[in-house]
């Protein structure tokens, strides 16, 4: 089984991972997956708190997959060795904790997942560069192009798109005052040119569907 949910922010939002939030009778193993739509938050300073949080995840019965959000230490995250897993590039944080890198297509349970993490911090003026905010929170041009190229290899057709933020049009529905950027514009272009069944993202701290676009925070849903 493949489940998906919103941000976890280190230890702040892990209380949602309780048995009652999973389908009744679910017996999970490392062959089942939990996808987190960014702001995983357990790769922050490499200290004891990170270690405790990662240890907690390592004790969960399933495999944890996450795209990065804006609240990650991107320099530390990108220091992990790159591996190829299920068709795309990853950083393996722990044996059952995997960062799905940007612009990749993964085949999981015979379904194709395109991943594009990142988002823009609206509070970065309150943060310190390379301490609590990293400019790598937004993808590079190389990552954008790698995404387009990998999608072309799959005939611009996937089952699911996993991101942290939403494309322009959906973000405008969420809040018309939210600023667009290169990433939200990229996702808008992508969603208009790629065939897909469902788009999932986090970032906005609420749960709501806009057609085939699903914003996640507390909800844990099974990918069908």
At the third CATH level, what is the topology name?
Answer: Purple Acid Phosphatase, chain A, domain 2
- Give the count of structural domains: 1
Helix and strand string, N-terminal first?
Answer: EEHEHEEEEEHEHHEEEE
Percent helix: 10-25%
Structural category: alpha/beta
The backbone outline, from C-alpha atoms, is globular
Annotated CATH architecture: 4-Layer Sandwich
Mean pLDDT, all residues: 95
- What is the total tally of β strands? 13
Structure, explained:
The protein is an alpha/beta fold. It has one domain: Purple Acid Phosphatase, chain A, domain 2. About 20% of the residues lie in helices and about 25% in strands. The protein has five helices and 13 strands. The protein has helices at about 50-60, 75, 140-155, 170-175, 180-195, and strands at about 1-5, 35, 65, 80-85, 90-95, 95-100, 105-110, 110-115, 160-165, 200, 210, 215, 220. The chain has a seven-stranded mixed sheet with strand order 4-5-6-3-2-1-13. A six-stranded mixed sheet has the order 7-8-9-10-12-11. Strand 8, helix 3 and strand 9 (about 160-165) form a beta-alpha-beta unit. The radius of gyration is 16 Å and the shape is globular. The model has no long low-confidence stretch (mean pLDDT about 95).
């Amino acid at each position: 089984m493949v489940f998906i949910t919103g941000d976890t922010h280190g230890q702040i939002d892990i209380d949602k991972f309780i048995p009652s939030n999973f389908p009744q009778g679910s017996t999970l193993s490392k062959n089942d997956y939990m996808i987190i739509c960014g702001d995983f938050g357990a790769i922050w300073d490499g200290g004891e708190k990170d270690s405790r949080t990662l240890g907690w995840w390592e004790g969960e019965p399933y495999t944890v997959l996450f795209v990065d959000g804006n609240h990650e230490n991107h320099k530390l995250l990108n220091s992990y060795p790159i591996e190829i897993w299920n068709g795309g590039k990853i950083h393996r944080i722990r044996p059952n904790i995997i960062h799905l890198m940007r612009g990749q297509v993964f085949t999981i349970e015979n379904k194709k997942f395109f991943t594009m993490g990142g988002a823009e911090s609206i509070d970065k003026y309150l943060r310190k560069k390379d301490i609590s905010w990293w400019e790598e929170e937004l993808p590079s041009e190389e990552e954008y192009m790698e995404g387009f190229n990998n999608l072309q290899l799959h005939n611009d057709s996937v089952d699911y798109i996993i991101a942290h933020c939403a494309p322009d049009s959906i973000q405008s529905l969420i809040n018309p005052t939210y600023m667009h950027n290169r990433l939200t514009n990229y996702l808008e272009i992508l969603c208009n040119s790629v065939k897909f069944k469902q788009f999932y993202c986090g970032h906005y701290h609420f749960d709501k569907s806009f057609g085939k676009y699903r914003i996640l925070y507390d909800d844990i849903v099974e990918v069908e």
